[in-house]
């Protein structure tokens, strides 16, 4: 597999080919450990040489997401901008002692990566400036005509982030803590005070509330007690409909599918043994492109009627990611041509990248 466009030369071409090998190696080995990845790259060189080449690639300052990943993300967003783009932000541990802050696009019960930043440290709250910067990076990729819904858990309820999202014309729904202070019609109270007015399976709303001690807003404040939750969920949003806000926030949990695909159920990113944030961020370029491609192969299997060859014909119990892995195995076993293109998810055309 080669990613080099016609006419690409020199170091840029070599880096593209190394990236192609990295993608194939991650998928083939189901691992982000460089020694295992190198074993699955078929280029005629010795495994030790391949591993050194991967190490140099991950250490190169010339390798960055702007050049080697964001074009994929921009194409994906362009293909789906006829629908509201649902973005979810969350963090997870990666490598050895590092954490990745991610923004993903929710698509058919999966989450597709768009942008990330990696920092040293275990999972925890990052400075709000990091959240704002990452949202700005994604904003530059989104077509002007697109409608955007931004989702975040309790870490992403900072008023600077919410104001930044609001300025872009995005709608947002973010979780917050039960002890967060509100002010409504001159009366101060906390989210937890709304619980007694919220039956299980319902929601209550304080529309036009001012949020936190700094009195950001006015915004709708929601207490939502889902039937499947032991405790209510507290939300802050700029949506006019409380029902829409709750339904939208329910999609936030799908970003967890991306982390499971990249980690225990797929590429084992958490076992890469890399502890340097910049190198991990570059490794994630290959892992995230691999994820895009495998989801594409899963969707392709459904559209081409191949479920009966890789799963079952009466019903489907697998995610698009798992279907994609099985579809790839089927194509390899049958000697069929393997698509090396990415799908326009709107009109099902294949787009060369």
Task: Give keywords.
353 residues, alpha+beta, Transposase Inhibitor Protein From Tn5, Chain A, domain 1, 2 domains, 10-stranded mixed β-sheet, 12 strands, 39% helix, disordered C terminus
CATH architecture type of the largest domain: Alpha-Beta Complex
Order of helix and strand elements from N to C terminus: HHHHHEEEHEHEEEEEEHHHHHEE
Helix content: 25-40%
- Tell me the strand percentage band: 15-25%
- Oligomerization category of the chains in this entry: single chain
Largest sheet: number of strands, sense, barrel closure = 10 strands, mixed
Number of domains: 2
Name given to the CATH homologous superfamily of the largest domain:
Transposase Inhibitor Protein From Tn5, Chain A, domain 1
Distance between the termini: 12 Å
* Broad CATH class of the largest domain: Alpha Beta
The overall pLDDT average reads: 89
Coarse shape: globular
Low-confidence stretches: 346-353
Structure description:
- With 353 residues, the protein is an alpha+beta fold.
- The protein folds into two domains: 1-63, no CATH class; 67-258, Transposase Inhibitor Protein From Tn5, Chain A, domain 1 (Alpha-Beta Complex), CATH 3.90.350.
- The chain is built from twelve helices and twelve strands.
- It has helices at residues 10-29, 34-39, 47-59, 65-68, 70-80, 128-139, 159-167, 242-249, 255-262, 277-303, 307-310, 320-334, and strands at 85-94, 98-107, 110-120, 148-152, 171-176, 181-184, 187-190, 203-211, 216-224, 233-237, 342-343, 350-351.
- The strands form two sheets. A ten-stranded mixed β-sheet has the order 3-2-1-4-5-10-9-8-6-7, with helices on both faces.
- Helix 6 (128-139) runs parallel beside helix 7 (159-167) and helix 10 (277-303) crosses helix 12 (320-334).
- The longest helix is centred in the C-terminal third of the chain and has 27 residues, at 277-303.
- Mean pLDDT is 89; it is low at 346-353.
């Amino acid at each position: 597999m080669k990613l080099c466009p016609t006419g690409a030369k020199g170091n840029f071409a070599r880096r593209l080919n190394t990236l192609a090998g990295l993608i194939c190696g991650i998928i083939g080995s189901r691992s982000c450990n460089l020694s295992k990845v190198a074993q699955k790259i078929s280029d005629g060189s010795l495994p030790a040489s391949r591993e050194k080449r991967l190490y140099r690639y991950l250490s190169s300052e010339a390798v960055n997401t702007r050049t080697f990943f964001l074009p994929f993300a921009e194409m994906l967003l362009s293909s789906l901008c006829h629908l509201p783009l649902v973005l979810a932000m969350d963090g997870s541990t990666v490598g050895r002692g590092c954490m990745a802050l991610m923004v993903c696009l929710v698509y058919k019960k999966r989450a597709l990566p768009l942008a990330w930043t990696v920092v040293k440290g275990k999972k925890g709250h990052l400075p709000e400036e990091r959240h704002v910067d990452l949202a700005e990076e994604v904003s530059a990729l989104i077509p002007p005509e697109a409608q955007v819904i931004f989702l975040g858990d309790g870490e992403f309820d900072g008023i600077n982030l919410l104001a930044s999202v609001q300025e872009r014309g995005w709608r947002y729904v973010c979780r917050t803590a039960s002890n967060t202070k509100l002010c409504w019609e001159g009366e101060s109270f906390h989210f937890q005070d709304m619980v007694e007015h919220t039956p299980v399976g319902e929601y209550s709303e304080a529309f036009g509330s001012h949020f936190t001690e700094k009195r950001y807003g006015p915004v709708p404040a929601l207490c939502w007690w889902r039937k499947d939750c032991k405790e209510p969920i507290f939300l802050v949003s700029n949506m006019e409909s409380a029902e829409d806000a709750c339904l939208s926030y329910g999609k936030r949990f799908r970003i967890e599918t991306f982390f499971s695909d990249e980690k225990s159920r797929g590429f084992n990113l958490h076992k890469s043994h890399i502890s340097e944030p910049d190198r991990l961020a570059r490794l994630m370029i290959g892992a995230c492109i691999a994820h895009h491609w495998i989801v594409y192969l899963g969707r392709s299997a459904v559209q081409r009627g191949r479920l009966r060859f890789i799963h079952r014909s009466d019903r489907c119990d697998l995610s698009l990611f798992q279907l994609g892995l099985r579809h790839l195995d089927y194509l390899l076993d049958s000697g069929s041509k393997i698509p090396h293109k990415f799908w326009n998810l709107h009109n099902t055309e294949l787009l060369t990248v």
